[in-house]
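thread: overnight batch results

M.L. [08:02]
morning all. the overnight job finished for the chain we discussed friday. pasting input first so we're all looking at the same thing
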Amino acid sequence: MQYSNIGFWKSIYFCTSQIGYVLKDFGGVLSTTNQGEQWSVNPFPNNHSINAICFIDSASGWAVGIDGWILKSTNGGGVFTDVNEDDKITIGNFVLSQNYPNPFNPVTKIKYTIPSVTLRQAQSDILVRLKVYDLLGREISTPVIEEKPAGEYEVEFDGTGLPSGIYFYQLKAGNYIETKKMVLLR
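M.L. [08:03]
and the structure it wrote out:
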């Protein structure tokens, strides 16, 4: 089947060895479920320019375009629908914020952000470890050690029973590692 006369093609994306998509400018995507032997046209519900398409498995995928619009498919690209504001994916990076207050006595809050699935290689949740160390590098506490989805989080650290001094807190999530300093003043 030849589609050379119906527009410009921007990219090709295969999420498995069988299932693939060809991104078409202004109006749709071609999809295949048999390594490209046969292709189906999958129209979009609007006529905006398509910039990128990505599927995290054979069913779930997103298309993005100019003016910030996002479309989502949950059936392998058969139907794309507009993503509601409340459902939009947070695109960003891992962030470990400075604790507040700092210096603290004896309680402080630590905030961190886990980015969207698209930036984390299609993992739905990621193992997050937040640990606190003393000045000599000894582990004092592990406030967080669990799998977390994308989002913003805040954890309270209680330094009751610890002496005044400099402490470090470290966030490890996937390949991301960041360490920050905090001060406990009595």
